[in-house]
Write a structure and sequence with these properties.
Elements: H1 2-27, E1 52-60, E2 71-80, E3 85-90, E4 96-97, E5 106-107, H2 111-115, H3 128-138, E6 144-149, H4 150-159, E7 163-167, E8 171-178, E9 181-188, E10 191-195, H5 197-203, H6 213-235, H7 240-249, E11 254-256, H8 260-272, E12 278-282, E13 292-299, E14 302-309, H9 317-327
Parallel strand pairs: 1-6, 3-12
Antiparallel strand pairs: 1-2, 2-3, 4-5, 6-11, 7-10, 8-9, 13-14
Helix pairs in contact: 1-6, 1-7, 1-8, 4-5
Length: 329
């Protein structure tokens, strides 16, 4: 699980960095060379000039899907430049939250949708509501945000020629269909499986198991690990124009406020940070964290399964202490 967590962090940071590289490339077409940019980790840091900062990553289904703006993937990467340490903090989508705009309560994965109600996913979307809520939950400031949609992941997987994953057990979900054979339910056999973009999009959404959404999170980690390995191999062979073409094809599938120089320093950090300086944390109702409890709440006229802080509804004191202990260790 720790190895998957490291891969998950690396791929997200690589994803964010390359997305910002595309933005820079569009505005500076005369400088298509990696050699033009090699800032040191010791250079002046972010605008806040802080030795550490936090990046919030949100994964959504995207336009044309049901629940277009629901953020079913939510995690924060805490980057400490001085200690060369990375902490990944995953937040389950079913965490129940309350605020001035949503006093009766809502699952945290609905906040991005609530703020941008009626919109399609585009650069006009804003993420202030969920950003502030995550800050409230974790007790840390969120400096940067990246939102990525599922179609973008499909395009990325197909662009790199697909991926291979190993499954210890068969995966079957009667609520999903095989994208290549719509009359069949989704099924993958135990062992090695080759997945193209369409199959990846299905696999990361399956949660037909007693553990529900935590089962889906496990699958997402497997995909990210495989993507990280494949992209890592290609970065040693592909030239900048190839990467530029790939990321240009992803235009419209991500939204971020990261700047290029900072993203590039993050990539440098990930390459050099020791394995024991990367930690994977999860807010869950399971050991070893055990920070949440499972219960039910009324939403939309019916009862739904939700997660609440173990310390009490809207009481994040235990979570704050836990996060500070881990990131300052």
């Amino acid at each position: 699980m720790k190895r998957q967590g490291k891969n998950f962090i690396f791929f997200f940071l690589l994803l964010s960095g390359l997305a910002l590289l595309l933005i820079w490339g569009i505005n500076h077409p005369q400088n298509y060379s990696f050699l033009s940019f090699s800032p040191s980790l010791n250079e002046k840091r972010s605008s806040a000039n802080s030795p550490s900062f936090n990046l919030l990553f949100l994964g959504i289904a995207g336009n044309g899907s049901r629940g277009v703006l629901l953020t079913d993937t939510i995690f924060v990467s805490h980057i400490d430049l001085e200690k060369e340490k990375i902490s990944l903090i995953s937040i389950p989508r079913d965490l129940w939250v309350k605020g001035n705009i949503y006093p009766s309560g809502i699952k945290i994965n609905g906040l991005f949708d609530l703020e941008n109600k009626g919109k399609q996913f585009s650069s006009s979307c804003s993420f202030n509501l969920i950003k502030k809520e995550v800050e409230n939950i974790l007790g840390i400031k969120i400096d940067y945000v990246t939102v990525f949609d599922l179609e973008g992941v499909e395009k990325l997987v197909d662009s790199i020629g697909g991926i291979n994953i190993y499954l210890p057990k068969d995966v079957t979900d009667p609520y999903l269909v095989n994208p290549h054979h719509p009359s069949e339910i989704f099924h993958l056999k135990a062992g090695w499986n080759y997945l193209d973009g369409a199959m990846v999009a299905k696999f990361v959404r399956t949660r037909y198991a007693p553990s529900g959404d935590f089962y889906r999170i496990q699958h997402q980690h497997q995909i990210i690990a495989a993507l990280r390995d494949k992209v890592g191999q290609l970065t040693n062979m592909w030239q900048f124009p190839t990467w530029f073409k790939l990321w240009k094809s992803l235009s419209g599938h991500y939204l971020t406020n990261l700047n290029f120089n900072l993203a590039w320093r993050i990539l440098q950090l990930v390459k050099t940070v020791p394995a024991d300086q990367i930690q994977y944390l999860t807010l869950s109702n399971r050991k070893p964290d055990n920070l949440l409890i499972s219960t039910m709440r009324l939403f939309g006229g019916k009862k739904v399964d939700v997660l609440l802080p173990r310390a009490g509804e809207n009481n994040y004191s235990l979570i704050h202490n836990y996060i500070q202990e881990k990131i300052n260790d």
